[in-house]
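Q: What structure does this chain adopt?
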Amino acid sequence: MSEEVKITKAVILAAGRGTRMKGLTEDLPKPMIKVQGSPILETIVSGLVENGVKEILIVVGYRPEVIRDYFEDGEAYGCSISYVTQEVQDGTGRVVDLAIAFSNGDPFILSYGDILVPASSYADLVDFTGVDGKISVKINEDVSKGGAVFLDEEGWVTGLIEKRGPDDPTSPYYNAGIYSFSARIFEYTAKLEKSPRGEYELTDAIAAMAEEGLKVKAVELTGDWADVRDPEVVESLNQ
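A:
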């Protein structure tokens, strides 16, 4: 039996403006848009803390002062919050490296700042026993809009294709945008090369981990899940 490991650190990627949000992000970073009365980012922070996360690093970029002024040092949320600025927008693979010092060798959760789930969804991601990484997945989503995740019969990740083309293999499992990583992820982000989209893709690093035999487990999210990608999603969630 592996010794039980619980994650107490989390990194939230909140640097983007969200150009698809149009006027909604004129004065706000996208993760500060309100959904059902609270900023998306506040719902994420609260859900993580509810599951035992004590230290959070928020990656900021566009209008960083809005986020810093709102959350300050995190004391009001029962955790410690620190900040780092993403200076160059060159893909999700490189931005993870901003968390190297914060991780300090410890495992951590990584969430995009526009993914909304119930607090209970983080429980399986906080449990880091016997794995090198975890990736959340949803069934019945359009995998052409994100990543298709390939699993074996026991739920271990065997491959990942980001923004698959019409001729690529498909999978019913959609990358849901929340992860758990050991510090070994940094070995793989360091080796990334730019994708055909001209970006360093985090999913390429995860795929390489799985292909080299590291234990990356899929966590199926069965509750509500929303990728707050455009004004139409915001409107539907707020109805």
